[in-house]
Amino acid sequence: MSNIIESATIDDIALYLQREDGIDVKASYQQAQSVIDGFNDMANKGIIKGWYFNDQGHLELLPSDNALRIIANQK
């Protein structure tokens, strides 16, 4: 999928995991890579188009237009 918005880098996610979960640097990067891999998988399936940290510091996903249509049709 093109045009992935990647405002939260592996470094950002690793630092977040270190701060929130109290894990060491090596483990935080391993877990952050796993998170990014999952996001890329969802993006490749057309579920999301990106991810970012919101104003409260929480990781948010940007749903794809197709995912938003599916959600809207289920209401």
TrEMBL record:
Name of this protein: Uncharacterized protein
Gene source species: Photobacterium indicum
Source species taxonomy: Bacteria, Pseudomonadati, Pseudomonadota, Gammaproteobacteria, Vibrionales
